[in-house]
Amino acid sequence: MTSSPADLIITGCTVLTHDDHDRIGFEEDAAIVVRGGVVESVTSAAAAADLAAAERIDARGQVAMPGLINCHTHAPMVALRGVAEDLPTEEWFNDVVWPMESNLTARDVELGARLACAEMIRGGVTCFADHYFSMDEVAAAVTECGIRAHLGEAYFSSQGAQGREKSLEFALRHRGGTGGRITTALAPHAPYTVDDADLAATAELAREHGLPVHIHASENREQTDISLARHGVTPIQVLERAGLFDADVLIAHGTGIIDRDLPVLERAAGEVAVATAPRGYLKFAWPTTTPVRALREIGIPVGLATDGAASNNSLDVWESMALTALIQKSTTGDPRWLTSRQALHHATLQSARAVGLGETIGSIAPGRRADIVLVDLTGPHTQPVHDLAATLVHSARSSDVRTTIVDGHVLMRDRELLTIDLPSAVRELGERTPALLDRSHGRRIQDYQT
Ligand SMILES: [Zn+2]
């Protein structure tokens, strides 16, 4: 160990760790030493007592865990939180969201992204995968507030080749940006809005430039049934046929993945991951959920997500973790499936793998980026603690996160946001709301066809 002071030492906490077989463990009365934005060591509190540090956090009574990762969202859509309630998917898109999104300005996106980052940092999220428009503004918000992000400029084939080219240009320009906190992807919207030729061209660009692809696919069972009726293949088979699985692909939702898709996905294991955002599936009354158990059997990581707040109403990944565990038990009829430790594995390493950062984040271990949250378990709803994994998944809430750290920098301390002026973002967004919600023009950015 070097003799110069560490940048940060977090001491006295219980640390969530992973062993060589990915199994979740907990080290009590431990300390985390951070230097240069990276975890240098996880040691005992006693061993760290005499080490010099520029900053020291006394975290007794708290659990240090890897920051949560929101593997699929549309952060700026917080501006539309609650505007399209209790509607079927088609009406949600065609009658409300896509007409309103035709009003979006870059400033709306920037303010929405700031509000979203504030919500996520407060909820213990240290990285999010975003899929939206005017992504330069999202990148600016990420740079400013210190969070980590995996960003893609979304496109439809109705934009012509320009949409795809803009997505590529964004991905190349921002790749590795903001001191490495920003990674990028190509972001075709979905197989029902991006045609086969455009998907094939996307696959070619992904190969040529070594870029991953982030796309909605098999979002629900109805999409799969319609694809089969019209084209004789499922949306997953459409992606394979386009050559997309030669690149790394992050599939949002996949609740419409059926048995015939599994061999296709298994051939792409190592390249493909799925993000599950269960609250929205319940709200849209979709009949199925992401087949997490079947995906596990073929080696496909499943990361946790919220989707946008216009459908999900929150960016609370903690809730996605608890809901994933509960819905998996319910849909498989097996209370032994998706234990709290498995849920924590999805929330940590599997989510990191889903966003292409499986070697960088998702675990508190030497050499990993210091993306850490401190969770206070002293509240009455989390005491006593008999099974720490169960306490974290089923009793704790996102509001129990006291401190959020990314790359060794404290973004929230004792629930206070240090890098975002939230009141000013909320105020200006409120002033812009009437123009954003106006649907009198009769335009929409795209049609959702069933
Ligand atoms: Zn989405």
UniProtKB/TrEMBL annotation:
InterPro entries: Amidohydro-rel (IPR006680), Metal-dep_hydrolase_composite (IPR011059), Metal_Hydrolase (IPR032466), MTA/SAH_deaminase (IPR050287). One of its GO terms (molecular function) is hydrolase activity, acting on carbon-nitrogen (but not peptide) bonds, in cyclic amidines. Pfam families: Amidohydro_1 (PF01979). Keywords: Hydrolase, Metal-binding, Zinc. Transmembrane segments: none annotated. The keyword Glycosyltransferase does not apply. The keyword Isomerase does not apply. Residues 64-410 form the Amidohydrolase-related domain. This is Amidohydrolase. It comes from Streptomyces sp. R21.
